[in-house]
Amino acid sequence: MTEYLITFNDEWVPPHTAEQIHEKGTAAALDWPQEVHRFRGPGEARRNGSEGK
Question: Which has the closest alpha carbon to 43: 21, 15, 23, 19?
Fold first, then answer.
């Protein structure tokens, strides 16, 4: 059964970074929509216009 699940997931699930997996898990645990990005990744600027401060 384990080999079947690994094969199935390998074909259907795209590769994710550790950060993406963490964000998706947090979103699911807190019932947030995954489209809402609440965490900034490394190198991502703030989106409130305060990049120069």
Answer: 19
Pairwise CA distance, residues 50 & 10, whole Å: 41
- Of the pLDDT bands very low, low, confident and very high (cuts 50, 70, 90), residue 5 is low
Q: Which of 17-21, 28-32, 33-37, 38-42 has the highest mean pLDDT?
A: 17-21
Q: Report the Cα 4 to chain-centroid distance in Å.
A: 25
The three-state (H, E, C) secondary structure of 1-53, written as one string: CHHHHHHHHHHHCCCCCHHHHHHHHHHHHCCCCCCCCCCCCCCCCCCCCCCCC
Look at 13 and 17; give whichever has higher pLDDT: 17
Tokens of 22: 């963490």
